[in-house]
From TrEMBL:
Molecular function as annotated in GO: iron-sulfur cluster binding; metal ion binding; oxidoreductase activity
Family affiliation: Belongs to the short-chain dehydrogenases/reductases (SDR) family.
Superkingdom as given in the UniProt entry: Bacteria
Cofactor(s) required for function per UniProt: [4Fe-4S] cluster
Protein's UniProt name: SDR family NAD(P)-dependent oxidoreductase
GO CC aspect terms: membrane
InterPro entries xref list: Aldolase_TIM, NAD(P)-bd_dom_sf, rSAM, rSAM_sf, Sc_DH/Rdtase_CS, SDR_fam
Amino acid sequence: MVHYSFKDKAVLVTGASGGLGSALVKILADRGARLIVTSRSEKAIQELIQRLPETTQVKYFTADLSVKGEAEKLARNAISAFGVVDCLFNNAGLGYFALMEETSDENIRYLFEINTFSPLALIRILVPHMKQRRSGRIVNIVSAAGRVPIPSVGVYGGSKSALAVMANTMRLELEPFGIDIINVYPGTIDSSFEENALREKNRSGFCPTERCGEPKLRIAQQVVTAAEGKAGEVWLEREGKRLAVGSLIWPKLVDRRIRRLRDKVVKNEPMKQRRWRLLQVESAIACNLKCVMCPWKEVRDKAANRGIMDQKVWDAVKQHLPEVASLDLTGGGEPLLQPNLTEWVADGKAAGCETGFLTNGLLLTEKITLNLLASGLDWICVSMDGASKETYERIRIGSDFDRVCENVARIARMRSGPAPKIMINFVLMRMNFHEAEDMIRLAARLGADQVNFKQCEVIRGEHGKGYGLFASEETKEIRRLSKLLSRARKLGRTLNIETTAFPFVPTELPVCAQDPRDSVFVRFDGSVAPCINLAIGGPTSFFGTEVIMPTIHYGRLPQQDLLELFETVTCKFYKQRFQERVQAYEKTYMDALTGGSHSGLDKLRDKASKAMPEAPQGCLVCHYLYDI
């Protein structure tokens, strides 16, 4: 139902010669509005006016809204044009593509003048005249970027957020005077927005839809329809609203959704998505240690070719690296036993992959470290499950605590910048939990950047069994452990050490971090699987219950091509099933939130989980799917 009519109303439209602005002007002219249009280009405005119906009443003014005082001058001119301004469309706006650390004070102020201060100045001058008539309407074109932390558009989002918040406050303040304020979130529009945007370091814009946004005329029609409705906020793009609500209620979900975009933006890569987000390559299942909790002992003993990946397998992988975003050269063994590891790291970097691996650190000699640094390694993670020599060497049998510490410290000393990022994996067990805080202190002393607190979650037969601290439900002991772990992570923040950790009790996820939709695992023998857990099946323990983990392979390299294997029936099943689970989970959750549901988060999560189709057989008994 139409709440407001533009017929014979005096309507001021800023940014009128732009893509959305010109479409708005045309539609408003068709509605019979008396138009006041403005742009910084007189030629562009005149060309726009020539395309309007001859019966249109229209006045135009040139105004550069990046200049302080221009908005006030424009507002006074607009009032004089028809003696009144019934409605204002704050449409003028400018983009800015830059990481926050790259932004300049000059560009920030320039952008805020156009996107925030000038629209606010127009409102503040026009409102007293509207209050006298107890009638008026203000329509602000804002953005979901003002509600969602989208990498490289932080300043733009901030400028639109500031306008939206102030306008919403004025909406409540001016409601008694008959003045309606509407904030419209249009989503992505197929216009020249990105072309005209400011940018640092030649950062390209990005378009989140295949069509580079909705047609501007269609969006303009929806904006005018929203402007004819009730005061408040109107979202034209449902996904933008979901992300905005999620960023407040469930920020981790939103972070996961935009992480890939973040990674591309930070590296200033083209926005074209690579086929594989992650390619995990088991460069070796052979190992130089005998760790107490290792699940791969029997598999390693039976491995062909001494458990070392053959160059022919790597060659079959290498040709597809330009389609890989992240390359992890880790599997069930020690990558540094692979004689070609440094060359393979260099291959990954040459193809534009973020590349790294997990090691026990014992073989990180000075020569190998120099070669790895020269190869461009992005990250290295060292397994250290004890902060003291006694605890560490009781777990990592055959290693040398002091040597590993020196090897880690050497990397930190020799790197010339933040890369490679140095991480430490600390597998939590009863025999080492008391050293969690000590590990944070040790990491700080060694020059590491991050400590990952992991659960001992992978079990094959008796190997790895009984070491896990997690359980199917919360207990008094788990609450105690959680509290101790929180203290360690708090210490990490104090000492500037990043930390990650997993829960002690299960929460079923739509898909695990491995995410077979866009990742694969390549065993040392060339077998291709969804992940390492499914690559090597066998008897396992799932929250205390004895089960069998199936072995799932798509095929084998180099006999088959990796791209061919990614399109096999089995692979398609995993990709499709997890896509269905993610869609069902997010839709149920976000629909409840955007629909005004007052259910608790636990109930919403439970409802979303029940809406998902069942996970594939092996994943049903994998602790990873339950966030352990």
